[in-house]
């Protein structure tokens, strides 16, 4: 509406970046690379692209802006399209994996850093772009760090390309240094004091702690103002929201509270709700992952409740692979979180950890992802880009050499690299899929075994958030329906089975609802599938079905995961073949509650809950397949009852 447009235009003018527009454009004109630092909420992400566009840069090519997070790319593109009064996907668009919302008209493109990285595979000089903004560089995501090196090399080849690196924090000096002492532009901040309250004793249960703190603020604080709670992920966010709601219901006379979750897997229309102001007289509480630390700004927050934790993908040497681990945040993150309370006025931050923990147990800054995760996908990508010597690639903070070596070893197991570390044909074909190496390997194994039609469905289903719904109060009903879909020996085949039934139903949303399946997720899986099929066809691969020969499909699954295998020890109880560490079937697995357990299984991922390592998405396999498909990995000793051993 006109009124809304007017208020948006007004709001743009009040952003701290607004007064700096001309200065910023001058620095950009005079320098090829600039680092821009500004508090979260100062307008970097939404305004810089528009300023460059208004200045005419978009006549020479698109203005690209990378984000480490998908949610942020989508949300910000929406906002900027609204500010420019254009339809999303036209002048302003976004691209995230499996979702391209741009067209020939697009001049401002928000995308994940992974997308730009992949684009550099087919267009090494990124000719389509006149400017690239590497936003949220302080997040130091794996892809951002690789892009740093790529863009540094590209800058010398393309003197007309403008590169802007933005950061919300201290690391700016390091970025400027890395690109050759480029100028740093600081947007003056405008923040209010935030009083910080630490917990007096160690908080045993941060969910319970957060719930109590929120209720206390809501019931006692006379001052209006919204609450932002930092949790770690979908699970604890949902529990927190439900518990707050149910406790509040039992209280008489409490004022209304609007409880809104935000995490990356949440449907995008629900994500957008956090930006809407609460109705008059209602307080809003947003329960978020660290996405609200710097990527998204919720206006009106006066109280922050900080659990002190986040989930990080971390290479875990004990289990020999990446796992999502619950980790204490860094001091830098803690300060960022507290700062969210002081944007529009003085605020308060309640930390659910002691002052001692803050000063003695937290690291000063986050460890860059590149130093803590498996690099398989990145190594494959860099090899495809022709970077042969990874140990000398210009990384800002080089990953530990043993991580590179381990990732190369993993790619060698999968057949993507040869003994000399060179990309094989198979590896080249794997790199054309925007998937983790094991999943691309699964597609290619499906090709070899004549079942890629089925395999590409499984991979698509694995590429979308969980499609199972368990509505509160109807969990048993949902579980009973789910049970009917189960293929006893495999969660992967269960996913395949569900997709086939979905297609059989004519891909109907009602069918999904009736069967407690997320219809958007299913639709998404179908979309991902058709994109992967296109990529397969581009490679001259024919899509072939094996009918219902489950065993052949299980073997293709095994080809992707033979290095993620486990052997049964007791009911639900396994030993990881690579690391000899105990791990468990997840209770939701098709293999759980069968009454017996297959001797050998492979798994999609391990999830560590703090007490146990659970295998997620499991398939029973024959031991001779492990030996056959991973000959470098296993040798089979005295028949299939004995242990498979590493060579
Ligand atoms: P920065 O990148 O410097 O952190 P942003 O450009 O993201 O700042 O945000 C500037 C302002 O725009 C903030 O006040 C924020 O609340 C508002 N904003 C950003 N995205 C949205 C959105 N999707 N809906 C409503 N307001 C938004
Ligand atoms: Mg931003």
Tell me about this structure.
The chain has 647 residues and is an alpha/beta fold. It is built from 24 helices and 23 strands. 40% of the residues lie in helices and 19% in strands. Strand 17 (565-570) and strand 18 (573-576) form a beta hairpin. The site of adenosine-5'-diphosphate has 17 residues, from helix 3 and helix 4.
Low-confidence stretches: 636-647
Q: Kindly estimate the percentage of residues that lie in beta strands according to DSSP.
A: 15-25%
Question: What is the count of β-strands?
Answer: 23
Gyration radius, rounded: 25 Å
Class computed from helices, strands and strand pairing: alpha/beta
Query: Which percent range fits the helix content?
Result: 40-55%
Q: Tell me, what's the shape?
A: globular
Query: What small molecules are bound in this structure?
Result: adenosine-5'-diphosphate, magnesium ion
Name the strands of the widest sheet in spatial order: 4-3-5-2-6-7-1-8
Query: Number of helical runs?
Result: 24
Terminal CA distance reads 68 Å
Q: Mean pLDDT score, rounded?
A: 90
Sheet of most strands? 8 strands, mixed
Write the layout of secondary structure elements.
Blueprint lengths: L1 H13 L6 H10 L2 E5 L6 H11 L7 E6 L2 H15 L7 E5 L2 E3 L6 E5 H10 L6 E6 L7 H16 L4 E6 L4 H7 L5 E3 L7 E5 L7 H15 L5 E5 L3 H17 L6 E6 L5 H5 L10 E6 L2 H4 L6 E6 L2 E8 L4 E8 L2 H9 L7 E5 L3 H7 L14 H9 L16 H13 L11 H7 L5 H13 L2 H11 L12 H11 L5 H14 L4 H6 L4 H20 L11 H12 L3 E6 L2 E4 L5 E4 L14 E9 L4 E9 L1 H7 L4 E3 L7 E3 L1
Parallel strand pairs: 1-7, 1-8, 2-5, 2-6, 3-5, 6-7, 9-16, 10-12, 10-13, 11-12, 13-16, 19-21
Antiparallel strand pairs: 3-4, 14-15, 17-18, 17-20, 18-19, 20-21, 22-23
